[in-house]
Design a protein that fits this description.
The complex is a heterodimer of chains A (about 325) and B (about 240). Chain A has eight helices and 17 strands. Chain A is of the alpha/beta class. The radius of gyration of chain A is 21 Å and the shape is elongated. The termini of chain A are far apart. Chain B has six helices and 13 strands. The longest helix of chain B is centred in the middle third of the chain and has 15 residues. Chain B is globular. The chains are: A alpha/beta (about 325), B alpha/beta (about 240). Chains A and B meet through helix 3, helix 4, strand 7, strand 8 and strand 9 of A and helix 3, helix 4, strand 7, strand 8 and strand 9 of B. The structure holds flavin-adenine dinucleotide and adenosine monophosphate.
């Protein structure tokens, strides 16, 4: 038995969402009276691997095979499915990250498992096995009952708090034979802004729209974000006009996020924009138009000119930080 | 090149979604159905890739007869022909299984899907088809170009992108950036009426999951407005009341 959790890393460091899925999977293991096995693939130090024991993993499988250094969903899916078989795992948990979304369906097919994607809460095991997920682009929830013997779940980032659960764990090498044709897919390049807070995982997000008039005015947005330790985001017309990179675009056609705090500056609050941000815990809107639809979806708001309000906001937060320092 | 594009029939982005009194079903009355926006991107890219090179673009939908207007729209945009698998799309696994059966017979070079359907947002179908056919799949891609005997793809990752090459056949799921969706013109609409739309019956597959219940997020309370010259007050509320930082 045991629950199996896939631990994604970026450059050898586990992501925040990894600790979330491990904590989540540990709780499922406790609920179903079994243990938690973690699996990680690629170059990760033994200290980093060992750190998973602090979050409830009692066995840590490490796949160090050189051919598996780069993520290829076909090959990684085969390895994780093999590990699930070897461990007799009935429940396999992954993050609903870009990587998890390309990987989980392949594992589910290999194991003939039902897949609950984009879970936002622990499964309800009182009658059967039901997982709550978001549907209709944030407008609804659907409770999905998985009826197969083996179950695969992907968890939305920022949906489950990281919980420490210290215990003993051993790191065990794991080998699996992946057929050659899984390696016909080649990763040529990875282009990523270094040292940036990853938007899908960010707790705090500062976002701006067409109300900012042009890319030259993003200095104050970046300053506010840096001050808060927040990620930056933008509306679709802003990335379409190349004022900001496409990776910052949130909404229906962009990224869906679920931060603790979302500050929307000069964004009107179109339904397609809200689709990607309405799951945020607290929403603050700064807009000069009191009729902007975003105020109806906000917790706090200021009706005012961003070019006056944002610099004041920066000063005020600096003041707060210096008092609390 | 022979391309298969998977299209799903979804409520228009701006639709209000309502459920039956027992919360077990979506109320479909009054909802305008459209081609899933990401599938439109995939379809447009497929047309761009075959134009001038003599390829074909087949669209496939797993759905009941009520989805035919959506399929006709895809034909009007420019698809060569269409297949409808006559069954309600129970879950992603069911859909992927039906499509993979047809794809295996049709010997397609490229199978395109949207990044996710905007109703259930599963992002499952593409990678499932890949696994069922034992061929590569790349999910959430913003660019797709022929290169040598295969394709070069840009896949979205957190904070950036990954550049990937793969031989054909391959399944690719499309997101923003791969193409600008086209609007059908009059000639397209006229010719769509006579383009072939083949209806096939679904194969039996075991059921692995089922939606038991729907619910809606709790509405937010009334917004607290803070005057523009009292920014300190907003910061205080965010710090002490919302505990946001
Ligand atoms: C199929 C489809 C998918 C879409 N997907 C997305 C998506 O994923 N994400 C997305 O964001 N949009 C999406 N859109 C577009 C969406 O409908 C809106 O057009 C878009 O969100 C508007 O962006 P905006 O709020 O930045 O610009 P606008 O709507 O132009 O709003 C600018 C706002 O700034 C305010 N403003 C102006 N000057 C100032 C100032 N000095 N100070 C303060 N406020 C000021 C204005 O009052 C206004 O409310 C989609 C549309 C379609 C049809
Ligand atoms: N019923 C369906 N018929 C054909 N294709 C579908 C269907 N449902 C989903 N798809 C395809 O699979 C993609 C991803 O859907 P999903 O996995 O449901 O989010 C969609 O963008 C479509 O391309």
């Amino acid at each position: 038995m045991s629950v199996l959790v896939y631990c994604e890393h970026s450059g050898g460091k586990f992501k925040k969402s990894t600790y979330e899925v491990v904590s989540y999977a540990a709780e499922i293991a406790a609920k179903t009276n079994t243990s938690l096995t973690a699996i990680s693939i690629g170059e990760v130090s033994s200290d980093e691997l060992q750190s998973l024991s602090k979050f409830g993993a009692s066995k840590i499988l490490h796949v160090g095979n050189d051919r598996l250094k780069q993520f290829v969903n076909m090959a990684y899916g085969a390895v994780i499915a093999d590990a699930a078989k070897a461990e007799g795992s009935k429940i396999i948990v992954l993050s609903a990250s870009f990587t998890g979304k390309g990987l989980a369906p392949r594992i589910a097919v290999k194991l003939e498992a039902g897949l609950a994607d984009s879970a936002i809460a622990l499964p309800d095991t009182s009658t059967g096995f039901t997982v709550r997920k978001t549907a209709f682009s944030g407008k609804a929830y659907a409770d999905v009952s998985i009826t197969s013997d083996i179950k695969v779940i992907t968890l939305v980032p920022n949906s489950y708090k990281v919980v420490e659960k210290p215990g003993e764990a051993s790191v065990v090498p794991f080998e699996s034979n992946v057929s050659d044709h899984a390696f016909t897919v080649m990763v040529k390049d990875i282009i990523r802004a270094a040292d940036k807070i990853l938007l899908p995982e960010a707790e705090l997000v500062v976002s701006a729209g067409r109300g900012l008039k042009g890319p030259e005015n993003w200095g104050m947005i970046e300053e506010l974000a840096a001050l808060l330790g927040a990620a930056t985001a933008c509306s679709k017309p802003v990335s379409d006009a190349h004022w900001r990179p496409h990776s910052e675009h949130v909404g229906q056609t962009g990224i869906s996020i679920k931060p603790n705090l979302y500050i929307a500056i000069g964004i009107s609050g179109a339904i397609q924009h809200l689709a990607g941000v309405s799951a945020s815990k607290t929403i603050v809107v700064i807009n000069k138009d009191p009729e902007a639809p975003f105020f109806k979806a906000a917790d706090y708001g200021i009706v005012g000119d961003a070019f006056e309000v944002v610099p004041k906001l920066i000063e005020s937060i600096k003041k707060l930080k210096s008092v609390n320092a | 090149m022979r391309i298969l594009v998977c299209i799903s029939n979804v409520p228009d982005t701006t639709s209000k979604i309502n459920f039956s009194p027992d919360n077990k079903e979506v109320v479909t009355a009054g909802i305008q159905y459209i081609i899933n926006p990401y599938d439109e991107i995939a379809l447009t890219r497929a047309l761009e890739l075959t134009e001038g090179s003599g390829g074909t673009v087949t669209v496939i939908n797993v759905g009941e007869a009520s989805t035919e207007p959506t399929i006709r729209k895809a034909l009007a945009i420019g698809a060569t022909d269409a297949i409808r698998v006559n069954a309600a799309p129970r879950d992603a696994w069911f859909v992927a299984k039906q499509i993979s059966i047809i794809a295996a017979e049709g010997k397609y070079d490229l199978i395109l899907t949207g990044r996710e359907s905007i109703d259930y947002n599963g992002a499952q179908v593409a990678a499932m088809i890949g696994e069922l056919l034992d061929i590569p799949s790349v999910s959430i891609c913003k660019s797709l170009k022929p290169e040598g005997d295969g394709v070069i793809i840009e896949r979205e990752i957190e904070g950036g992108k990954e550049v990937i090459t793969t031989p054909l056949p391959v399944v690719v799921s499309a997101t923003e950036g791969m193409a600008e969706p086209r609007i059908p013109n009059m000639r397209g609409i006229m010719s769509a009426r006579t383009k072939p739309l083949q209806v096939v019956e679904a194969q039996n597959v075991p059921q692995l999951s089922e939606i038991k219940n729907y619910d809606k997020p709790k509405p937010r309370g009334q917004v607290t407005l803070v005057p523009a010259d009292e920014v300190d007050k907003l910061v205080d509320l965010l710090h002490t009341e919302a505990k946001a930082f």
